[in-house]
Write a structure and sequence with these properties.
alpha/beta; 6-stranded mixed β-sheet; 22% strand; globular
Length: 291
């Protein structure tokens, strides 16, 4: 049965409107994400399988925050919401992996105030990031953060005890702008003892792997902030290109690195397909990860 010219024209017109409508919806979704996604905090739940995890640490939980960037484009209230989410997860340990502020050290007190409610059974610890140094007054940033209740691990380690089993949480100074020393961070960790490393820049995991660090927790990359499908890869910063987001294994090693894409953002203040993150991870023995 043949269709009339009028019917054919109507169908073409319908398809044309449908295509334009779809493009408008897609464009609206992109614009909405670009300008509002940076405020859509989400919880990423991650299981981390570790082959030599002490049995007492099987099921141990860690909440990670990173790249808060309190400053011109990240309000104190946004960080306060992230801290509230972190507290709601009731993790055993809370860590903050650097870049507390952007711009000026004068932003540090309000960042620290937003984080001051953080509490965990085994403590709240952190390391500094490159933006903390780029304020030109990293001492003021460190002082504010410490006053806010976060213990900074700058080239040092603390011994934690879970059910009578000791293990070590280690941290290094910022790799890009500070004076990191993995030797200093690990010097009091007994050989073969379980430990976790905090380091702002994820690509430092290559160095951590040489020392057989089981797990490194990092931030820095922001996941690129904007991730466009089918159009190349995201723009990533120096020392944040090899392990840009999520859980990855360092090649030819047993070292894992987890990269949090951050709570805040930097200029331009947009995110797309890369929502701000609060990480809730559970450590499990590798042989039980698939049980």
């Amino acid at each position: 049965m043949r269709t009339s010219g009028t019917e054919t024209s109507s169908r073409r017109q319908f398809l044309r409107y449908a295509l334009w409508g779809g493009a408008a919806l897609l464009g609206g979704r992109v614009l909405l994400s670009l300008f509002f996604e940076r405020n859509w905090l989400t919880v990423y739940r991650v299981t981390v399988p570790l082959p030599n995890l002490p049995p007492a640490l099987h099921g141990f939980t860690i909440c990670q925050l990173s790249d808060l960037h309190r400053g011109p484009v990240v309000a104190e209230e946004h960080i306060r919401r992230a801290a509230a989410i972190a507290m709601s997860l009731n993790a055993d340990l809370i860590v903050v992996t650097g870049d507390f502020v952007s711009g000026a050290a004068t932003n540090a007190p309000s960042c620290a105030a937003a984080l001051s409610g953080l509490r965990a059974r085994y403590g709240v610890y952190g390391v500094l990031g490159n933006h903390d140094y780029w304020t030109q007054d990293v001492e003021a940033v460190a002082d504010a953060v410490t006053r806010g209740g976060i213990q900074l691990l700058t080239n040092r380690a603390v011994r934690l005890n879970v059910q009578g089993v000791p293990w070590w949480l280690c941290g290094v100074d910022d790799v890009w702008a500070g004076e990191p020393s993995l030797d200093a961070a690990l010097q009091y960790v007994p050989g073969g003892a379980f430990h976790i490393l905090l380091c702002h820049e994820p690509d430092f995991a290559d160095e951590a792997a040489k020392r057989r660090v089981p797990l490194q927790l990092s931030g820095h990359s922001h996941g690129g902030q904007v991730r466009l499908p089918l159009i190349g890869g995201p723009i990533l910063p120096y020392l944040g290109r090899k392990y840009p987001m999520g859980l990855q294994r360092v090649k030819n090693s047993s070292t894992l690195v987890y990269t949090n894409v951050g709570v805040g953002c930097i200029i331009p203040p947009i995110r797309l397909n890369c929502r701000p993150e609060v990480t809730w991870m559970t450590l499990v023995a590798a042989n039980m990860a698939t049980a």
